[in-house]
Amino acid sequence: MSDGQSGDFDFRTWSHRASDWAADYLESIGDRSVRPKVKPGAIAERIADAAPETGQSMEDIFEDFESIIPDGMTHWQHPRFFAYFQSNAAPAAQLAEQLATAFASQCMLWQTSPAATELEIKMVDWLRQALGLPESFKGSFQDTASSATLCAVLTMRERALGFAGNKEGLFGKKPLRIYASGRTHSSVDKALWVAGLGQDNLVKVPTGPGPLYSMDGDALKRMIEEDRANGMVPAGVVICIGGTSIGATDNASEICAIAAQQGLYTHVDAAWAGSAMICPEFRHLWAGAENADSIVLNPHKWLGVPMECSLHLVRDPEMLVRTLAIQPEYLKTHGKDGIVNFSEWSVQLGRRFRALKVWFLMRCYGLEALRGRIRNHVAWSQRLAERLRAEPDFEIITEPILSLFSFRHAPAAATDLGDHNRALVNAINDDGRIYLTQTDHDGTFAIRFVAGQFDMRENDIDIAFETITQVARNLE
Question: Which pTM was predicted?
């Protein structure tokens, strides 16, 4: 029994043990059920109700970890995780995360972690180049796209108010209006809540037909003009590239042009799809994004960087810093010129050393191997869509956009296809071989499929087809 003092803990031994466990886990993860077969509360029942008064042995702690935690986890690194959007963690980047944890750095200012700050500047630029964006974009790593979108909405707010909102508040001012399609992510809605603009001032613009379901530019112009005529203040537009539900993608070139004519700030939410833009053949999907004021994409989704790592690019960093920087004396760095303090680029003051895992990932795998993975995911997913389309009792609801599409099972005997497909997605996930999620597309219940797990193989798609069709027909 340990007395709980750090001197009694053999870090070297246990870090090796943890690394061995992680390696074994990753090697065998495909043998596990993707989603755990546990009932709510089952894990909590096995955890003590209060912390121990004295330290316990690491042997006991690790034994409890092995017996309780893995079987209660949804395995996001599983090669047949086809739900939500993947949250990848390439092994080389996991190693970097361990090293960053050893530093335990607070990377809020240049002086608190010079190497972290300067590596972040370099890694942001490596990604900018890989994405084919102009040198005018600078940026930082936020925790998630939700935070980056909040930063963008706050910048829209301050720009529209002459940068007086932070000081004076919003009381008594004309309502500010932000525009986005109804197919954008809910993080845009939440950003307006947090920014104090209110849900009612997020104007949902109609979208056109598939396969892209893009924001209607004429409707956007009309809504902006109507709001101005009604005494409101249009402030910005959020452009969706690869929306979460079915991959909806706005025409960035058209929307940026309209926003420029109207004097509005533009933010591109490409949280998932943005990573695919390292492949030049997919860049038509966000053509014109280079004209936006800011862009967000998540390397922790499709590129293999572990959570949390969201790339926030801006054309005018000064505008962002003017919105978010606060500089009490204790956060000032005297006697150093030309430095960057990334805490002034985000809502958070405290910041993790995120750039290290990007550096390890990009050097270990290289851009061509990363492109190859994304190209495979797109090709394999589209092939699955065609296989399901060829089945007489399946329908493709929304066409593939990159590696995302939606479908439903439509047997002749089903009296309510919505209920039938709700039962189907639950049965598929209970089966354990694959994991899928659902969506509502214009009133139609549909099942989503998205490929993107870092180490998946083509035969994982075959297993997905077999699972979907077998489970569906067993429901009939």
Answer: 0.93
